[in-house]
Give the backbone structure.
Amino acid sequence: MYHTWMRFLTPGPVHHRLGLVCLGVGLQYGALPAVGPRTLDHHVAVVISSGGGWYQHPDGRRTTVTAPALLWLTPGVPHHYAPDPATGWDEGFVDFTGPATATYTELGCIEPERPVVPLADAVTPRGVITRIARAARRDNPLLEVETAAAVHELLVALHRARADLTPDGDQVLRALARDACTPMTVAEHAARHGMTLPELRAAVRRGAGCSPKDYLLGVRLGRAKELLAATDLPVAAVARRVGYDDPAYFSRLFTRRTGMPPVRFRAQQGRTVPGGWSDRVPDPDDPPMIEPPGAL
């Protein structure tokens, strides 16, 4: 016995220009029938939140699937899978496509080479799928836009939920962000964490979808933008604050990565704040108190 609900969408050409579009969403549980063998022309993320079953690869090998788990179904790759007929499983799926899938694949958020991915927790991804299902009602005037936005959120949630993203990996990324503005080479960062350079590269690629160099550069340039926008520090001083002793090199790098030189960024965004901006993200449930003019 099984229960199933699904809905399929047909986004228009203008929606495809969003980069990702949702083509379908479903929520199912029980001893569902086997899927395939078949081949699709789009991506599907199947989140298994309870139960177990199997996935068959194109070469005939079978991999045991135990919840929580993710099945990546990618375009052009034959697949065949099913829950255990004795226990069934609980799944939510989302069909999607769009040019942004190539970038998400490059960033490691879509993994065609890993069709079965163990998850540490399926609660958050399943919650996103449930919201997509609610947004997919036919009387929703923003159906295509709302579901497309949620597909982006789902890919991020699935990346965070992977079981191989250990707390140690998170700690490495936090430490790199903390020390990013210290003038150190990537090899020196690796040594500080007791890792080889390949190990650090693998950890950062797995957690952030980029190289350690790009990860550190992103943190440095973000901090430089804050200093340019919120202080009157000369560009040379900003460069030193974020780890560059050569202000000319910093200016060239900033221009190449942001599309404008530091002085132009400051002219557009500058708003000097005494003491600088706060590093604390405001809590919407506890907004900061703003004293009226003349208050004691």
Remarks:
- The first strand starts at residue 2 and ends at 8.
- The mean pLDDT is 89.
- The two ends are 70 Å apart (CA to CA).
- Strands lie at 2-8, 21-30, 35-38, 43-56, 62-66, 69-73, 79-83, 89-97, 116-118.
